[in-house]
Amino acid sequence: MRAPPGRGGAQLRLEPWSVTHGASWQDDGPHDDDTGGAEALDEAAVSVELPLAEWRGLTPTAPAAVSRVWFLDGIRRVEARAVLDTADGQRFAAIGSCAVGAVECAPDGSAPAAMCAGPITERWCAVAAASVDLPDLLVGAGAAGADTYRVVACPGDDHQAPTLELQRRMRAAEVRLVGELRARLAAQGRTTAGGAPLLVCDGPRPYVGPDERVVGYVKTVQQQRLPLAAFRVVRALEAGERSPVYLVGSGPQARFEWYLRLRDPRPWLHSLAGSVRLQAHAGERPHELLAAAKAVADWSAANLGRFATRAHQDPRAPQQLLPVRALEETLRRRLGNPQLLRRRLEVALAAGSGAA
């Protein structure tokens, strides 16, 4: 249970995550999951499952049948920042790697988690320019093997543009892996005993078209659009409760969203601690997909809490899920030692090494 407000309703509460991982609450403008613009949601969008006046924390009543859950995640790492000197001036660049993979878990814990797709590993050198005529970087040639960083141009001219390009490349790899898993899901059939697998993508739901079994799992609350009355309900959720499903955006990329409390926060933590936001496809006919979204929302409220980390396991507990934590560690190992890669980059650039 959360502590009552102090005098005047004001409270000073801490952010539970380590400062090295940012914050779980970041109200700093639109982000890459914002298909509906930055405006606040109107009452019609919020009243999809329940009228706004009846909003309350919901406990699972009819969860979807899920035989297995697939957790998908990607990591992106900048190994070196650079500047491209040209006759016309200088351009910012970032040299980095990304890796994407997925693990499979039994919702009831009857089998250990295991890698089920990927990993996809890619290395890029992104240059903030309209075009770039450079050979790819060939790094570490010799007995130890070689890594190739593909040189690509990216829009923008500020120092953040190359890093954003690396992020876009990672998202594109995630979309490809989601496509592979969706094909596997279709091949296995959707009416198998115990239900079909559920694909939980760590981060915003990728734009992969209609599929009620692909959901996004957003650990950080980066923009708040709910009306104040609805947001009060979100802040008061108990562990294992979810908000009613609401609608964000319109057209083919419209999505359902709901908040979920994984674990009650300590009394000294802010009122959204332990909360996550999930996303499912709504599309142009959300009324036809609402029942499926509610069933997945009930499943998430009933089951995701058992995958949540504790503070001694991860600095982003409980929003960081145990299978995702293990997957990230595996992906980092696949990318290799960053200090060694940095040294190899220095050697390659000093020698003018490249791949035609």
Outline the structure in words:
By secondary structure, the protein is an alpha/beta fold. It has a domain of 236 residues. Helices cover 24% and strands 26% of the residues. Strands 4-5-3-2-1-6-7-10-9-8 form a ten-stranded mixed β-sheet, sandwiched between helices. Strand 2 and strand 3 form a beta hairpin. The relative contact order is 0.20. The N terminus is likely disordered.
Strand content: 25-35%
Order of helices and strands: HEEEEEHEEHEEEHHH
| Number of separate strands | 10
| Relative helix content | 10-25%
The gyration radius over C-alpha positions equals: 22 Å
- Largest sheet data: 10 strands, mixed
Q: Gap between N and C termini, in Å?
A: 62 Å
From the spread of the alpha carbons, the general shape counts as globular
- State mean pLDDT (0 to 100 scale): 86
Strands in their spatial order, largest beta sheet? 4-5-3-2-1-6-7-10-9-8
The SS-based structural class is alpha/beta
Point out poorly predicted stretches.
1-7, 28-32
